[in-house]
Design a protein that fits this description.
CATH class: Mainly Beta
CATH architecture: Sandwich
Strand order of the largest sheet: 7-6-5-4-10-11
Helix content: 10-25%
Number of strands: 11
Structural class: mainly beta
Amino acid sequence: MIRIRAASILTVLALVVTTIGLLAGSVGSASAEKAELGQQYDPGTPAHLDIRRIAVDNRQAVVKVSVKLAKFAPRRTSAYAVLQNERHRRGPYYVVGWSQLTDDSIPKGKVLIKINRRGSATPVRCAGLKITINKKRGLIQASVPQRCLGSTAGTLLVSALSERPDGHDVDELGTLRVRRG
């Protein structure tokens, strides 16, 4: 089991709290099987951590997620999609994407991490998981089989998050409510 640093856990928990708060107001989708949300360039955010768009396709057998960055820097970009079940807001939830955290709290490169209700993080091995990087387009794409999400499968709340190598938040985008098709 890999231990995520307290700052990383707090980052994800803050994103979950933000997600719940946004649900009380407006949510960035029409609750269809497919949804996307974008934002303008933020001049104060480094391009390799500037999230421009998140898109989700929540199919019956697989969840497809795309996180678009202004630029992708393989050794400096840490960006993820956070997948959370609408009915189980306290967890577990999953973080999928690309990590370059410097403290080895999670593996570097392509990651799928399950975070339980207590904040413990466990890497998930899953046959059929695909994470691809398009450096030229600044795109991280993940295809996660629904069976790998356990009780999280179903109608999802999906957000995007980028972090500096030390685990501190830089940019967030979300929340999308996407029902399972």
